[in-house]
Structure formats: structure tokens, C-alpha cells
Amino acid sequence: MIYLDYNATTPILPTVLEEMLPYFTEHWGNASSPYSFSNPVAKAISTSREKVANLIGAQPKEIFFTSSATESNQTILNMYGPSVIASSTEHSSTHEMIQKLGGGHIPVNTQGIIDLTSLAEQIASKRPKLVSVIWANNETGVISPVTDVADICANNGVFFHTDAVQAAGKVAIDVKKIGVDYLTLSAHKIFGPKGIGVLYVKEGAPFESLIMGPQELKRRGGTESVPLIVGFGKAAELAHNDLAIRSCKSKSMRDKLEEAIFDCIDGVYLNGNKDDRLPNTLNVGIPDVDSDMLVQLLSSQGIMVSSGSACKSQAITPSHVLLAMGRSHKEANEGIRFSVSHLTTENEINTLISSLKLILQSL
Ligand code: PLP
Q: b/e string for 136-172 if b means 16 or more Cβ within 10 A?
């Protein structure tokens, strides 16, 4: 199997799993219990909190664990209700919540970059309390100008939330330098386990729990899933230590793939800005080729990639991200995403290119 869909999820690294295992077997106590059996469990949670805080330049007390990035995003959005505006290319966990709450959308240009003039105008006219802008887009890899967004928000007394799920482990994040009020992370995108997310809440920023209970500094109820939290901590530590090498390896594989695709496919076009983009992501459209069909054909050859379409009410709908960038429905259905990692090899890229050529010739 050749896996080129690391933006969808990543495997747990062996060292991460190794660190988690004792918390399934030996240290299975409840972190909230007062007796000595639970001491190592409570300690493991605080160590993980420190490691995650370190990844984004936060204080440990500003980090708390949730069940997923979806929960983290929706906890913040729910707090502000309709008084939120968000970019029109958010991940579906934000996009759908904004629609439900009746919040506003900030347009992006044809390269997927948020329109800062419109952001400032909407802040002036709609007076939202929160702006939510994805740090790096999951489909195109486009990186938002988060420093500018944070400045505009700060100058207008508006809180700023960013979904940094795809950015984490691929680009450097420093919440204090940028001025972020709320930030979302997910472990399974950085070689940690699934089912565990993080919400960073800047000290002093307003907060209301979505799930009440005494755990997680009273911010997120429910007995802590300690093995998953430990896995998140270890994955964050590795992502922080290996950021430069991982990004460099990913970029060299992504660039090789991009060059080969543009060399061998007529009319292929890039979705998203070429420069302000994650080092591991490539989203292209191949004229007259339906990407869902191509995903299936590649899958039948053991190669896993992704299209941006979503399955809603048993119908396939084109990617709202590509439509927001001004792509037609036909073009949006042509969008195919390759996302590599530091584990991707040159051999895998060569095999993909050969298969792609054969498939396209046969169509
Ligand atoms: N935000 C972004 C940008 C994502 O790519 C994803 C996962 O696809 C999520 C949020 C949701 O993450 P989780 O699976 O932890 O809910």
C-alpha cells in the first residue's frame, strides 16, 4: 500500500505507541482519584500538557484536552453563537457549525487566501465577537496570513480563533508571538492517536464549557483518556523536535511529485497558492477527469489519495473550499489532493506517477 493522504490521518509512530501502552495496562487509575495509585496517571497528564504547550508556545495551564479537533472548534464557536465570522474555506467541522449558528463568511481569493479588506469591513459592519480563520487549509495546504488576521482582530477588540490542525508539526506555531486567543489541535494529524484533541485558551480569554465536569481544570468534563493524552504529548514532543527535518523531507517529496505531475499531464492546474502552502500538500485539477473516479482507480492499485468532495445525504457534493476559491462545479470535481509526510519515499512517488500515467492513458 502506498499512502499519500497524510492530511486525512497519520499512523501512530512506534515510540508514541510505546509511551501509551503502560497507561492501558499498568497505570489504569482514574487521574482524579486522591490515592497514590493514581499519582503517575495525573503526572502523565500534566507532562503531556507541557509537551503540547511547548509545541505552540503556550503555557501548560492554557491547554486542555478534548475528544477531537471537531469538539475543540465547536466548543469555541458555540460559545459565540451567531456573533462569529469565519473564512469560507474552513474545515467542515467549523464550516457546518457556522452555517448552523448563522455566522458570517469571509471570502478568499482564487488562490485560497483570505481577503483581509473584507475581514476588516465585516468587523466594522457586523461587529462580530469572534473571528475564526483556519491556519492551514486541509485540502489545498494554503497558509492563512494569521499574523495580519490577529492584528486586525486585536485592533478591533475581537477574539481570534484558529484551527491549526494541519499547520501543527508542519510549520512553526507561536501563539504568543502571533496573538491568538483560541487554537485547535488534533493528535492524529501529527502521528498520534485518534480521538484526542486540544483546545488552547489564552489566559484571561472568555470560556464556557461545552461538556461540564470537574476534569481538565473544569473546562472539559469526562474522565480523561490518559493513554490518548500521553500519546498526544509524545507526538507533540516529536513534532516539535523534528519539525525542520520533517518539513524538509516532506517538501522535497511534494516538490518532486508536483514537478512530475506538471511534466506529464496536459492542462493540469494547481489549486491554491504555490508559495503560502504547507510543505506536504499538493492539490491539482486534471481537466475532464473526475477526481472521485481517479481516487477509486488509484485505490484499486493500492495507492491512497483524496478528493475534496464530501458525501452528504448520499450524494457527492463538490468541495466547498474549491468553490469558495471561484472554481466551477466541474473544476471542483476535478480537484485531487496528495499529502505526503517525512515517511514518504521516492519510490512511492515514482510508483504513483507511473500508475497515474497508465490510468490517464486508459481513460
Ligand atoms: N480541522 C482540520 C483542518 C482538519 O483537517 C480536521 C481533520 O480532518 C479536523 C479539524 C477535525 O479533526 P478531528 O478528526 O480531530 O475531529
A: bbbbbbbbbebeebbebbeeeebbbbbbbbbbbbbee
Dist. CA 191 → ligand 1 center (Å): 14
pTM for the whole thing? 0.98
Q: Please state the rounded mean pLDDT for residues 44-54.
A: 98
Ligand 1 close to Cβ of residue 197 (< 6 A): yes
**What pLDDT band is residue 308 in, cutting at 50, 70 and 90?**
confident
Kind of pairing, strands 335-339 and 306-307?
A: antiparallel
Query: Ligand 1 center to residue 97 CA distance, Å?
Result: 13
Q: Write b or e for each residue in 40-65: b if 16 or more Cβ atoms lie within 10 A of its Cβ, otherwise e.
A: ebbebbeebbbbbbbbbebeeebbbb
Residue pLDDT, tens place only, 241-267: 999 999 999 999 999 999 999 999 999
**Which amino acid is residue 302, in one-letter code?**
G
153 included as an active-site residue: no
Q: Could you tell me what percent of the chain has a pLDDT over 70?
A: 98
Q: 237: which 3 cell numbers?
A: 514532543
Angle, helices 226-241/243-264, rounded to nearest 10 degrees: 80
| Ligand 1 neighbourhood includes 91 CB (under 6 angstroms) | yes
HSE of 80, CA atoms in CB hemisphere, 13 A:
26
Out of 153, 248, 264, 311, the active site residue is: 311
Pairing label, strands 159-163, 130-132: parallel
Are 355 and 298 in contact, with CB atoms under 8 Å apart?
Answer: yes
190/286 Cα distance (integer angstroms): 29
CB 94 near ligand 1, within 6 Å:
no
Closest ligand 1 atom to Cα of 137? 3
Residue 333, C-beta contacts closer than 8 angstroms, at least 6 positions apart: 290, 291, 292, 307, 309, 318
Distance 222 CA to ligand 1 centre (A): 21
Q: Bridge-partner residues for 161, per DSSP?
A: 132, 182
End-to-end CA distance of the chain: 23
DSSP 3-state percent helix, strand, coil across the chain (nearest 5) = 45, 15, 40
- pLDDT (tens digit per residue) in 180-208: 999 999 999 999 999 999 999 999 999 99
